[in-house]
Design goal:
Blueprint lengths: L2 H21 L7 H16 L4 E5 L5 H8 L3 E6 L2 H10 L4 E4 L14 E5 L10 H11 L5 E7 L4 E6 L5 E7 L3 H10 L3 E8 L6 E7 L1
Parallel strand pairs: 1-2, 1-4, 2-3, 4-5
Antiparallel strand pairs: 5-9, 6-7, 8-9
Helix pairs in contact: 1-4
């Protein structure tokens, strides 16, 4: 496993419960994200439905929300600690340990894919490979939704949720750059949204295979 992957797994295993507490109820405070998730669900159904992969699902709160929108989601996360919490908190849903760099999903097997703020620890040189994996597992015409921190900087995060130690880089990217990388990977970009406070902006890009 690459060093950044091992660091990310260890860091999120360490903060798993504190992170789960931190994001509990977070969607209730995010009207733009809820709207984009509803649009994503509609796009999945229009494209034929099927299983939806929530890649980097963390404790499963977004996976559960997608299920509430009528989708059939499977949550995938690098951190076994996160998956343990997700399975405990949402026992009726499916969760698996896995990496977005090498998804254990068959080619063309999913009807939609979501990566909600899980790309933020992926270094620039690894992003094209991740997008290739996303395209591989999606059915033709199936939608992809990416949510991420918007900007041009990166930083090393050494302390996280609950004051626990972490060792992960946090990358901010402009939505135009993410859209460009998606096109290079063979996606058609449909929409870009930038929102949130000016000091910590967020972005969403929606594309399809």
């Amino acid at each position: 496993m690459d060093g950044w992957l091992a660091d990310t797994r260890t860091s999120y295993d360490t903060v798993a419960q504190s992170y789960a507490d931190f994001v509990s109820g977070a969607l209730a405070r995010e009207p733009y994200l809820r709207s984009m998730l509803a649009l994503f669900a509609e796009l999945v159904q229009t494209a034929g439905g099927g299983t939806v992969a929530d890649v980097g699902c963390g404790p499963g709160h977004v996976t559960a929300y997608l299920h509430g929108l009528g989708l059939d989601p499977v949550g995938i996360d690098l951190s076994p600690g996160m998956i343990e919490i997700a399975r405990r908190e949402h026992p009726g849903l499916r969760f698996e340990v896995g990496s977005m760099t090498d998804l254990v999903l068959a080619d063309g097997s999913v009807g939609g894919l979501l990566a909600s703020w899980s790309l933020i620890h992926v270094p620039d040189e690894a992003v094209p490979g991740v997008f290739t994996q996303f395209r591989r597992v999606l059915r033709p015409g199936a939608p992809l939704l990416l949510g991420f921190h918007a900007g041009d900087t990166s930083r090393l995060k050494t302390e996280g949720y609950g004051g626990h130690p972490m060792h992960v880089h946090v990358y901010r990217r402009q939505p135009e750059r993410v859209a460009e990388l998606l096109r290079e990977a063979g996606f058609t970009v449909q929409a870009q949204l930038r929102f949130g406070p000016t000091d910590t902006p967020s972005a969403i890009v929606i594309a399809h295979r």
